């Protein structure tokens, strides 16, 4: 559509800022890939936070990234948190100067913010330099940074209704959340996916994924009850997150066999989705979007400390329509394994959940978002 609008002689340049978790990074990469699909010679630079996972995942995807020394407010009551918060204004000033210099040197046509620590300084600096900016807000309840940035942003792409109470109504475009193309086009029960994990197509497979950084409650529950779940004769693919995996009890890893894989991170999540007959997951915006596309029976365990408890709101939107099973975080140890085992033995309920979650499917979000970026 835009190939004629932007011929090769007019090289376009874009900055995408943000990260911290897969929920921010993977939508950002989906946007970058769609830009390159339309304008193959476009230059794209990422701006992230040092020591966060974007500094690994973005280069792995083939894009350059600049890292900022930045962190958020520490809400604990410790002395170290107090000192850290005292330093934050000075750090933000230093970061502002650095990011302004990066933007001036790169000279982008537009700057896209996807949320995360680096998103705020980058969009503020871009707006101060008169560069067009777009916010991609994944959640039903935006964080304070995006609320403040919305005043200067040119457009705000959202996934939920009702965000005019947080953002200027005239700037909002409802697009849905962008998803990696590999997930949109994934093939269920792929032979290649089974071979990748060394699993058998004849056996049912459970995928447990607490987000890119893992989920403490899910991990502790699985660590305690893994032997019980293994007795059901299912294949288990468990993504723990990097931090939990580094400190995992060796006795748990000893339970790995041809039916049980325990990994810190699943790079090819589309393969994991392809073979999963049941999924246990957090209820972040990206997870919900992906699960709706995949259409697999799911048990959702919302992260209870998300802003305004928006993950619980996400999960309730599905559970109220019999599109997923909701288990509160504080009830995981008691209820998760019994609920999961019951679901494994209830084909009718599994079928209903799979059919209903597909009703929440949105597959063209990234195309719509990139169209809005180019329209700037």
Mean pLDDT: 90
Q: What is the radius of gyration?
A: 21 Å
Distance between the termini: 15 Å
What is the overall shape?
Answer: globular
CATH superfamily of the largest domain: Glycogen Phosphorylase B
Backbone structural class: alpha/beta
What is the second-level CATH architecture of the largest domain?
3-Layer(aba) Sandwich
Major sheet: size, sense and barrel closure? 7 strands, parallel
Q: In CATH, what is the class of the largest domain? A: Alpha Beta
Helix count from the secondary structure assignment: 16
Uncertain segments: 1-9
Q: Would you report the number of β strands? A: 13
**Integer tally of domains:** 2
Roughly what fraction of the amino acids lie in strands? 5-15%
Helix-strand layout with pairing:
Blueprint: E1 13-17, H1 22-38, E2 43-49, H2 54-60, E3 65-68, H3 79-106, E4 110-113, H4 119-128, E5 132-137, H5 144-149, E6 155-158, E7 172-174, H6 181-184, H7 191-197, E8 205-209, H8 216-230, E9 235-239, H9 242-246, H10 250-253, E10 260-263, H11 269-275, E11 278-281, H12 285-294, E12 298-300, H13 310-319, E13 325-326, H14 332-344, H15 347-357, H16 365-375
Parallel strand pairs: 1-2, 1-4, 2-3, 4-5, 5-6, 6-7, 8-9, 8-11, 9-10, 11-12, 12-13
Helix pairs in contact: 1-16, 3-4, 7-11, 8-14
């Amino acid at each position: 559509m835009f190939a004629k609008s932007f011929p090769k002689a007019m090289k376009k340049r874009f900055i995408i800022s943000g990260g911290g978790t897969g929920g921010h990074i993977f939508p950002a990469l989906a946007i970058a890939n769609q830009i390159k699909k339309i304008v193959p010679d476009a230059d794209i630079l990422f701006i992230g936070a040092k020591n966060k996972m974007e500094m690994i995942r973005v280069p792995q995807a083939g894009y350059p990234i600049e890292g900022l020394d930045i962190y958020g407010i520490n809400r604990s009551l410790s002395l170290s948190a107090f000192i850290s918060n005292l330093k934050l204004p000075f750090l933000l000033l230093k970061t502002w100067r650095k990011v302004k210099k990066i933007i001036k040197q790169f000279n982008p046509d537009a700057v896209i913010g996807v949320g995360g620590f680096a998103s705020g300084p980058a969009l503020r600096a871009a707006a101060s330099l008169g560069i067009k900016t777009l916010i991609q807000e994944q959640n039903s309840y935006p964080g304070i940074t995006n609320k403040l940035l919305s005043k200067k942003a040119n457009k705000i792409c959202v996934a939920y209704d009702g965000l005019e109470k947080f953002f200027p109504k005239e700037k909002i475009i409802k697009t849905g959340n962008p998803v990696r193309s590999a997930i949109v086009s994934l093939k269920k029960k792929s032979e290649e996916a089974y071979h990748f994990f060394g699993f058998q197509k004849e056996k049912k497979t459970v995928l447990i994924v607490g987000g890119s950084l893992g989920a403490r409650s899910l991990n502790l529950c699985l660590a305690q009850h893994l032997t019980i779940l293994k007795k059901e004769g299912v294949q288990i693919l468990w993504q723990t997150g990097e931090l939990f995996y580094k400190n995992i009890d060796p006795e748990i890893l000893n339970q790995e066999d041809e039916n049980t894989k325990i990994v810190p991170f699943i790079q090819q999540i589309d393969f994991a989705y392809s073979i999963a007959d049941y999924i246990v997951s957090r209820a972040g915006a990206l997870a919900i979007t992906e699960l709706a596309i995949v259409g697999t029976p799911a048990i959702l365990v919302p992260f209870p400390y998300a802003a305004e408890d928006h993950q619980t709101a996400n999960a309730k939107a599905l559970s109220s329509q019999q599109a997923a099973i909701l288990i509160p975080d504080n009830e995981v140890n008691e209820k998760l394994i019994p609920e999961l085992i019951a679901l494994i033995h209830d084909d009718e309920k599994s079928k209903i959940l799979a059919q209903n979650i597909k009703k929440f499917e949105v597959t063209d979000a990234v195309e719509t978002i990139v169209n809005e970026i180019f329209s700037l």
